[in-house]
Amino acid sequence: MSDNAQISYDYRVRFSKHGAIRYIGHLDVMRYFQKVLRRAEVDIAYTKGYSPHQITTFAQPLGVGVESDGEYMDLKLNSYISCSELKQLINEYSVPEIQAISVKKLPEKSGNAMASVAAAEYYIGFKEGRTPSCLLENDINSLIQKFLEQESIILVKEGKAGLREVDIKERIFEFSYDKSEECFHAVVDASSGYNIKPQALIELFLNYHNDKMAENSLMIYRADTYTRDDEGKLVSMGDIGLDE
Amino acid sequence: MKNFWNTNLALSDDILMKIEKPERYIGHEVNAVYKDPNDVRVRFVMCFPDVYEIGMSHLGIQILYDMFNTFEDVWCERVYAPWVDLDAIMREKNIPLFALESQQPIKNMDFLGITIQYEMCYTNILQVLDLSRIPLLSKDRGEDCPIVIGGGPCTYNPEPIADFFDMFYIGEGETKYRELMNLYEECKDKKLGRKEFLRRAAKIPGMYVPSMYEVAYNEDGTIKSFTPKEEGIPATILKEVVKDLSDTYYPMKPVVPYIKCTQDRIVLEIMRGCIRGCRFCQAGELYRPVRERDVEVLKKYALEMMKNTGHEEISLSSLSSSDYSKLPELLDFLIEECSKRHVNITLPSLRIDAFSLDVMSKVQDVKKTSLTFAPEAGTQRLRNVINKGLTFDDIIGGSTEAFKGGWNKVKLYFMLGHPFETEEDIRGIAELSNEIAATFFDVVPKEKRVNGKIQITVSTSFFVPKPFTAFQWAPQCTKDEFISKAYFCRGAITEQLNQKSIKYNWHDADLSVLEGVLARGDRKIAPVILDVYKQGSFFESWTEYYKHERWLEAFERNNVDPDFYTTRLRPDDEIFPWDFLSCGVNKSFLLNEWHKAKREEITPNCSQKCSGCGGAQFGIGICFAR
Ligand code: SF4
Predict the structure, then answer these.
(1) Which residues of chain B neighbour A18 with C-beta distances below 8 Å?
(2) Burial class (CB in 10 A: 0-12, 13-18, 19+), B412
(3) pTM of the model as a whole
């Protein structure tokens, strides 16, 4: 391909983060992928200028200590490669704890991964012996019911301009308790500016029921990250684009 | 979800979530080697006694890690000094120190290998042993303890830490570890025990087992004799060297850390040793003779390591890269291959000349980088004393070319406290710096000056005499002398016409004094180090954790006079604590160099003329290149 042909190819990679690797911070995961892509000799596009860097974007950063099957990275390549080949390449050069789950080729104007994030889906459990007493004594789903029936649910968020109050009632898209798995299931806003951390949700919920949790009580798993389709419905970010 | 939540890490989730940078302790990096413990006969743990980011950056460990893991019967893992936050938790909760790969306790391993790169890590060695629950003194260790073996440059005077080690490996690690592993396996099979293993190991070339030697002292505290306790144990130990650097182990798949390390790049070691023979420089003697790695081999390594690591940067390593004979060819190759892959090249400090300026302008942004000169002394007279072959004309000529090419930052490195230094020599530092600034204003017309300025940074460190150098006989300055020299230097700089262009930094004097004690110390220093550790000191190379008073107290408590080791002029015939070791360079050669220094006479470098230092006994390298 000649240099002046400005054609590029955009891909979206859904990847996992498991086991010991959940202690790797977001910036280091980004650096890690740069090295994976170089090892795999993927024909990634670079920015121009004195210190060119790879053109990649990552969706909502995952907290340290959280496991996930719903991480996303968008890439710009200089040449075409099939989605299955790209997935195979990434996995060959990545550690077992971080693997590409699916790769899609993005249509031309799909917006970057970060900006299009609308929601994230979590499973949240309590570690052995740390379940707060209100959960042991009551039917958890009816506690959730009461919590959600409030007129407003106020979350105090720390932003660049200091603390601000946000009503997240309409931003909790799903909140329930799965008895067989012994964990909460939640789909909450994860857009930039309104991201609701799962810890914060559980904390609000417990506070409402006059309970609280001990430090580092939660096991958190992000199942997926969502964007909105043309009709405004939540769809998995991994459903955007085609497997071609 | 409990099914996947558990990990097999030695530290609990609560701890990992509480400490700084948990990535330091979890292993699982790309290219880390995992083996089934049941498939191997020897478990070896390689330790760099400093924090992960520093230890991971060390090439020597990477070479040995790679080498050991090519042995099918050995699994080599890594461990670093836990940072102060985790250290406190491990002590409180009684968690034993573990290897990164298996996450299993160090105590259960066969060997703990510790690389000793600088004196200020000695208390960290004790920290690592202590957290591993290995008795700090070799004599207190039983059959349940790994063999603690030391290596690296500080082992050329191992005496201050000899009590803490079961044995030392003197010289380059690539050569004798296989033999040592075989011996270990044999002793293990025959259940001969650690004492017998150590006795036999002491007969392998390059191995030093401190417990097999006896030291006797004169009344004045100097050494009277140093003798093997048994028949068959060698009286002197010659360092090990790699005969052919192009045909040995090299870590083609180095471990790629997740967190940013000090060296977050590929390191290509182009040669070992240095031709130059500066009289203050220990590395210049320890690694003689100069041996180059074949340029074709290096090219192959570079490509392979880029493929295997994905690093975005590569750097060359050696003591004096400008002396590598095929440097232009290697750099041309790297510049071409790296630009294809968007990999940056970091150049080591090269001698400033037309060639290096051309290369530097190709790989770096001229405006952002500095020129580096290390004249080490301010006048030609003193540079002759220290045998530093860098002249005034080299510096001014190089600067002139560089200023024409657009550079406007210069870094200058000097040492204060060389033997035979006078105030004139210190003033020379200021005058040389001033001259460089004047050159800039001469060469670069006003309209072309970026911000109208030249920035010169002068850094001085304090000279600490080291074993196996011409200056091993020299008295070291006292703390007060060091400080007054630094003040004098600062004063002289402020008197210069271009003083506004010159920034001056100097190092801490307390640390240099202590480094001097540890560098030329003997076995009587061990109780002092132990005392300081017991007072709670480690990570002393980090200024915030260095507590000088503790050392002063410990010297006093243990009846050790630090001046005995530092400020004393040693007579020509004194037996040094490290004299039973040999790096190949003869003591008579060094003594002659010491006398020549006094007479301000220079010695030509190995490529100009062989001076018969003794390095030729290895039968390799530059000594036979002519
Ligand atoms: S024997 Fe001669 S050439 Fe060899 S290292 Fe010594 S001085 Fe240099």
Answers:
(1) 4
(2) buried
(3) 0.95
